[in-house]
Here is the input.
Amino acid sequence: MSTLLRASELAHRVVVTFAGEDVAQIKDIVYAANGGQIGAFTLAGRGLFAGPLKVALPWAAVAALGPDAVVIESEDVLVPLAEVFAESDGSVGSGKGDILKSEVLTDAGTSLGRVSDVIIGIGSAQGGQADVVGYQIDPAEGLGRGKQPLLIPLPDTLSASGKHLMVPAAAANYLTDDLAGFSSAIEAFRSQLGGVS
Amino acid sequence: MQWWVWLIIVIVVLVVLLGSFLAIQARRRSGGVIISDRKRGQRK
Here is the structure.
């Protein structure tokens, strides 16, 4: 069973080495367009005057992900920012490709709302992978679900790009506002799609 | 103009500059969720 958490909970988390050195803080979460696997974190320096760093932290180099800090072996595990982005997408450090506030559309063309956060599932095994398993959305008015943020499960084989995020129409049947019960919504949704992992 | 008028002007300008700097810094450091075309699962 994986642990679910919101991407916003990871942002600004301190990155610390085994030696206790405070090297950076998490800025962006970078995930693969094809599959939803978390690839890396972009980093910002510590302190009021520090800006974004030109290095990134690959997910594979995370030794521990605690509630207050991300632990890494040493600063040597950080890689140049360009390595975590495709050369062609031009998104290095610019914030392009940020899906927050992007519109979520079903494959039937219905708008479900706009992304306000991303739900990440982290494997329980040490060194396990982390995947984007859902979006938190501010519901569209046409949905008739009020203004309370809702969680929408994503299929196993996520494909995302551009300003619009496409989801199967069946995902609208599994909208929930409860993160604790979201795992079962994901499983039920994926079972319906026939994509049980 | 009186000297204290200039003092107030200088203080207001400094406050505006400081506020702008802090706002820009907050924006530069704010987080997001980015899609990358490259799938990077393993450390080199």
In short: Helices of chain A lie at 7-10, 182-193.
